[in-house]
DNA sequence: ATTACTAGTAGACGAGTAA
DNA sequence: TTTACTCGTCTACTAGTAA
């Protein structure tokens, strides 16, 4: 994203444009961006053109909202700053062991996934995944993880069913090597799925509701 | 800071320019910034001119490092992103009650400070401050607090001694209204000082080493 | 009050090139 | 190879102004 777009978009977000439409005249935006009303007006048109904001052009005052594309772009930048300042070759997520939906476990057990995991991560995952409900205050850290590279496990189509790309990040739970896996194109979730060479529940005697720390390498 | 400076500075920081000099040719920088070698070279000269980076112009490859001013500017932007995504009209710091150095308590008891605190915060602080050692993992949150506005309490000179500006943020400890105070120009510290209408140690029976949460309004 | 057009100007950029 | 100058072009800005 062009830095001038990011700059304007950030200021709009700071004014609450992520949550809802926010009343913001071109003059006001110009003042916060330290530019003329005319240039701010143009900037708004450009942001609209780039699909970074939507606008409700009322009779008196326009109201502006950041689109999901705009939000994603801002998150990308946020993630860069976190990498810069959080030093973060490691992120620790705190959470609670929960019962899996079974979905992730089924997916990841596909042989086509497993052979790639063995090649990339160096272990054959135990059947099924450990699901961890991430603490609310640690959810922003998940974005840092998503913003980092990790290992891409390629998707495939089998029996007419399509299995998408999966990103894996090596991690540790109580010093046991494991990996957190998530769909490359994931919608928001506060549950992470963890694969491991061993049966984590048994090896670490984890029950539902148990508190654990997941240290993720990023 | 001009957004184009921030953009270049951020990329340099991502390449490790915050920690140490990093070898970075103008062509390489141009590639990451998606601009020509010539423009990148010019950008570097501008950043030098703005005192945002320093340079070690070796015979073969120049080496670039972000200055402390540059670091501060980046932190400012980082803080904006945290405000955007951490929702954060409130930040909770976890920490441990510690014995004060006595310094802060002495400072804040000056009548010239106290009268301003009463006007701004609506209470007369109890003599002395409660010192809290902030958990290591919560230290980045302190930057968010510092990046937000708060109430400025103006400094003064008295008996030839100068008392600097102080920033206060309203806060709560176990539902008791208080405020965290810090020098406007503070060097790094992992101890925060808290003022309150009441004697916090007695009111909440806090002993040294006790774990507490400080909820700060930002 | 708004938003946003047009016109003129300042500044950012890349190509060519020197050191 | 580097860095960084000059110069021409083209974009981005502001002022003036219309709707």
Write the SSE topology.
The structure is a homodimer of 218-residue chains.
Chain A lengths: L2 H15 L4 E2 L2 H8 L3 H13 L3 E5 L4 E5 L1 H18 L4 E9 L4 H6 L2 H11 L8 E5 L4 H9 L3 E3 L2 E3 L2 E3 L2 E8 L2 E8 L7 E5 L4 H4 L7 E7 L1
Antiparallel strand pairs in A: 1-3, 2-3, 4-5, 4-12, 5-11, 6-9, 7-8, 9-10, 9-12, 10-11
The first copy, chain A, binds a DNA duplex (19 and 19 nucleotides) through α3.
The CATH class of the largest domain in chain A turns out to be Mainly Beta
Summarize the biggest pleated sheet of chain A: 6 strands, antiparallel, barrel
Instruction: Kindly report the greatest chain-chain contact and the residue count on each side.
Output: A-B, 23 and 23 residues
Total of helices of chain A: 8
The outline of chain A comes out as: elongated
Task: Calculate the mean pLDDT score of chain A and round it.
Answer: 88
Query: What's the N-to-C terminus distance of chain A?
Result: 23 Å
- What's the total count of β strands of chain A? 12
What is the succession of H and E elements of chain A? Answer: HEHHEEHEHHEHEEEEEEHE
Structural class of chain A: alpha+beta
Strand order of the largest sheet of chain A: 4-5-11-10-9-12
Please name the CATH architecture of the largest domain in chain A. Answer: Beta Barrel
CATH superfamily label of the largest domain in chain A = Riboflavin kinase-like
Approximately how much beta-strand content do the residues of chain A carry? 25-35%
Rg calc of chain A: 21 Å
What count of domains describes the coordinates of chain A?
A: 2
This entry's quaternary arrangement is homodimer
User: Which regions of chain A have little confidence, pLDDT < 50, spanning 5+ residues?
Assistant: none
Q: What percent of residues of chain A adopt helix (DSSP H or I)?
A: 25-40%
Q: And the CATH topology of the largest domain in chain A?
A: Elongation Factor Tu (Ef-tu), domain 3
